[in-house]
Amino acid sequence: MRKPIITAAAIMLSASALAACSSNTGDMSQRDDSSGIISATLIASDITAASEIPAVQESTDAVISEAVNDDPMGAGQGHNLPLKDRTEDAKLAVEAAMKNYFDETYGDKISEANVVVKKIYNYDDEAAANLTGMNSENLAFELTYDLKPASDSKALIEELTGGNGTYNEETGWIEGKVGVGILAPNPDGTNPEYVIELTSTSF
Q1: CA 16 to mean position of chain CA atoms
Q2: CA angle at 185 for the pair 182 and 188, rounded to the nearest 5°
């Protein structure tokens, strides 16, 4: 009789152990499931937060900017416009040519000269002034200038003020001289590049 009782007791103990294991397994499953749910919740919230961030939209219309060299006198670029169509360049050319003209005309009679080009004639101005023989290579201009005599000799001052201009005794300059002229390329093809072809008090 003892053997069957022992067997029954062993069966009951085994069943209890299995139930305990089953219970533990169930707890573990619940823990795993809980952690899985928490993980899933966290992942879902991350996705939601990420979806709220506005996406950076890439423009398909790319703006391409390219440097434009609009300087006709740029290095190595050359130029196609005549000098009379480049007013600032033309003024500089007239100033330089007039100073050379003064050197040739007056030599050591003057010590300094100031030149201000007031106007470069365009094609319409040339026609209105009845200028003939004008072309794209030469140009007409108006200017004012001051000359400083090398001495205060009365004869020299009278010579330099001929036509117009007044002598300022305080500064020693003959001031307010006005004139017009025509600038042309140097026919010798050497420096200076431009020369004064004509000067006068008016056209």
Answers
A1: 91
A2: 125
The answer to whether the predicted template modeling score (pTM) of the entire model surpasses 0.85 is no
Instruction: Say how many C-beta atoms besides its own lie within 10 A of residue 160's C-beta.
Output: 21
Please state, as a whole number, how many other Cβ atoms lie within 10 Å of the Cβ of residue 102: 18
As a whole number of angstroms, the distance between CA 98 and CA 92 comes to 10
Cβ(152)–Cβ(168) under 8 Å?
no
Helix (H, G, I), strand (E, B), or coil: what is residue 90? helix
Q: What are phi and psi of 131, to 5 degrees?
A: -80, 130
Whether the predicted pLDDT of 74 surpasses 90 = no
Strands 166-168 and 173-185 turn out to be: antiparallel
CA dihedral 166, 171, 176, 180 (to 10 degrees): 110
- Cα angle at 165 between 200 and 150, to 5 degrees? 100
Q: What are the pLDDT digits (tens) for 9-41?
A: 444 444 444 444 444 444 444 444 444 444 444
Per the CB < 8 A criterion, the answer to whether 187 and 150 are in contact is no
What is the structure's pLDDT at 82?
92
Helical segments of the chain, H only: 2-52, 87-106, 123-128, 154-160
